[in-house]
Design brief:
The chain is mainly alpha-helical and about 190 residues long. About 65% of the residues lie in helices and about 5% in strands. The radius of gyration is 29 Å and the shape is elongated. The protein starts with a helix and ends in a 5-residue tail after the last helix.
């Protein structure tokens, strides 16, 4: 089969639709479904020092007690420096509570983004296989759906619950099998 300019242009159109479709999906998720930011949860907390346990715990921080530090005797054995213990010091992890809230919000965001992305990928596959009859457009949408599945798995997979992954995969697989059945059943006769 010789390659002509028309088939090259059709392939370019299909690949362009595939790429733009996924850029649209990702950009749409970023615009309409905001990812949680550290500054929104912990921004005001980290801008101040918290010198004691009470002030630390008031802002949702976790106070870490340190062992008293003994002053090291000087080389000259001066009486003012020998054996004097310093006060107990500690450290305030002021972002303890807000970091947990941020992590919880981020997990929810990634779970929802995963579901949106695989749903958009499935819809793209349905459009590509069953709705559009024009080859480059059908190619762009069906492969765009494939790329959406891949992006959702790479970008959000680690934050999604195992059961949600399992049932999402079963649903998508069954849907793709049904698409294949209806699309190609007349060709197998």
């Amino acid at each position: 089969m010789p390659i002509n300019s028309n088939s090259v242009l059709k392939l370019a159109l299909g690949l362009s639709i595939m790429i733009i479709l996924n850029l649209l999906f990702n950009y749409g998720i970023d615009i309409f479904f905001k990812e949680p930011k550290f500054e929104d949860y912990c921004g005001s907390v980290i801008r101040r020092p918290y010198p004691d346990k009470t002030s630390c715990e008031t802002v949702g921080g976790m106070w870490q007690e340190n062992v008293p530090i003994e002053k090291i005797p000087s080389a000259t054995n001066a009486p003012t420096a020998v054996g004097v213990a310093s006060a107990v010091v500690g450290y305030c992890d002021a972002t303890f509570k807000c970091s947990q809230e941020l992590q919880s919000a981020d997990n929810l965001y990634k779970r929802n983004a995963f579901l949106i992305m695989i749903s958009l990928g499935f819809i793209s596959c349905v459009l590509g296989f069953l709705v559009f009859k024009n080859w480059p457009i059908a190619f762009g949408f069906s492969y765009g759906g494939l790329i959406a599945f891949f992006v959702s798995a790479v970008k959000y997979w680690s934050s999604v619950d195992d059961k949600l992954r399992f049932f999402s995969l079963i649903s998508i697989l069954l849907g793709l099998i049904l698409i294949g059945y209806f699309k190609f059943k007349e060709q197998s006769k």
